[in-house]
Amino acid sequence: MSLMKMFRLTICGPRERTSLRFCRRHRCLVTAVLVNLLIFFYLAVLQHRRSHILQPPSRQISGKRISDGDKEIIIQKNTERLVTVIIRDFEEFDNDVVSTVKSFHDLNSLLNVLVICDKLPYPPLLFDKNFDHSRLQVVSLTMNPLKNLSFTRPETFIHTPYVFIVPDSTKLADMESLYSAISFLKKSVNFHSLALPVAGSHLECLLAKVDIKRWTMEYLVDSDTKMGCDVVMGDHALLITKQHFLQLADPFLKPFSVSFHIQSILRKWKTFIFDNVGLTVHKILYSEPHHRWKHKHNTKLRLMNMYKKLGIKLVQHSDGRKEWHGCTKETPRCFGTVENDMPEYLYQGRWTPPCCLRCLRDTAKHVFKILDKCGVRYWLEGGSLLGAARQGDIIPWDYDVDVGIYQEDIEKCENLKQMKTESFVDDKDFVWEKAIEGDFYRVQYSESNHLHIDLFPFFSRNGTMTKHTWMKSHRQDTEFPERFLKPLTKINFAGMNVSAPNNVKEFLELKFGIGVIESPKYPNAEDPL
Ligand code: ZN
């Protein structure tokens, strides 16, 4: 009896046993066996791959003594599956990118290297004729009309679980130490990235705070390196998982390490300084004075661009030094025309940029000094008085300073008299002008920067202070009894002692409503973010 016939006799029902074709039960069994075999094969492949990626190479040959040579081969064979080397920061006029790429390929010819540039470098990166380009990708972030979108997206070329971002001209001593750094990062719970010093440079580990709402970054005291760092200063390479790296808003923002650390802080990630990896410098860059100057200049421009993109306008250093990246007399105001009393930054979840508050304070100081000198009776109005009552300063999301003056006092002051007929720039570059919106005056920070103080002329009508123009979007813009100005008092505002109505609380509650000092609200009546 043939084997097939026996099979049919045992598996198939009596009616089907005589049939020469395979019965239904028979077909089911064969299919089930095949499916099982396929699943088993797939799992075996998966397990094999995983063991290559996740297990330390030494564990792969168990029970066998591995010679140093074997170990090196195993590491060489595997690390390229773990990590992609990225070179981001380099200068076109003086770089060592070609040698840096080559030195990594000399250690492991299968290692993927990604060179990311804003535009294709000129002069071009020239590799030897026999250089194998299959493991190198140069990605230009500038679009090329002939190429598709993915060509300008570096992330399409990262296929490993880790990325290793190195400064130009960094040379790695051996793959084993990079492997040990990867193993360390894989095991660490508290750190998201490792900073690896280049050429034994001493790395500073700093704590820092980034306050997006206030457009501010603040460097705090040095951190205990064991606890991890918010910012690492000094020449270093960075190791991080691809998954975390691509969670950053702009992981390729230059200058690389600063932009990386700032974005990490926003995600509450810590960097650990790992100094067991042999990284040396291949070539001394920018040795020519002109190149040095150009590099310094470019770095400054890149930093400015980075702060602009991240929306950081004030950097406070731990020694008290303040670095401004916001508006000045020469630049336009940081925000556009305000519609319906709600400046655009409030919709972005941010408050008034610190540079704008600073310019507003400067303008207010300048104007109050002149009004005091002329003997013009003035008082803080609306939101400015509210800010003074609350915290002795401009409300953190306010965009101008409002001041009331006695209309009859305009004649006492040359600046006010002149601005009635024509706008003019004073000797400190402030612009005095009549507002287009109505019968009031405005002092602007400069001709370019339109941050301003509004001066509203009031006059008394039978003991009620009134004026000619009313702002519909300002609920606080109302008449009030003159007794609040008799006498005028003083209030602390932005570091000055300025003129204010008496009974400030009563005055403010008359204008804004009961409890206004205690419960801050945005102009559109929402609670502050
Ligand atoms: Zn500004």
Uncertain runs: 50-63
The small-molecule ligands in this entry are: zinc ion
SS summary, helix count: 14
Secondary-structure class? alpha+beta
CATH secondary-structure class of the largest domain:
Alpha Beta
Shape: elongated
Please give the largest β-sheet: 8 strands, mixed
Q: How much of the polypeptide forms β-strand, as a percent range?
A: 15-25%
Helix content: 25-40%
Provide structural commentary:
The protein has 529 residues and is of the alpha+beta class. The chain folds into two domains: 69-281, Spore Coat Polysaccharide Biosynthesis Protein SpsA, Chain A; 344-512, Beta Polymerase, domain 2 (2-Layer Sandwich). Helices cover 33% and strands 21% of the residues. It has helices at 3-11, 14-17, 24-54, 68-82, 97-107, 175-187, 242-245, 256-266, 289-310, 344-347, 354-374, 382-391, 414-421, 504-512, and strands at residues 83-87, 112-117, 136-140, 162-166, 170-172, 193-197, 204-211, 216-222, 231-233, 236-241, 271-273, 279-281, 314-316, 322-324, 378-380, 401-406, 424-425, 431-434, 441-444, 452-461, 464-466, 480-481, 489-493, 496-500. Strands 15, 16, 17, 18, 19, 20, 21 and 22 form an eight-stranded mixed β-sheet that branches. A seven-stranded mixed β-sheet has the order 3-2-1-4-10-6-11. Strands 9-7-8-13-14 form a five-stranded mixed β-sheet, covered by helices on one side. A hairpin with a 6-residue loop joins strand 18 (431-434) and strand 19 (441-444). The longest helix is centred in the first third of the chain and has 31 residues, at 24-54. It is elongated, with a radius of gyration of 35 Å. The N and C termini lie far apart (86 Å). Residues 50-63 have low confidence and may be disordered. Residues 326-327, 334, 353, 355-356 line the site of zinc ion.
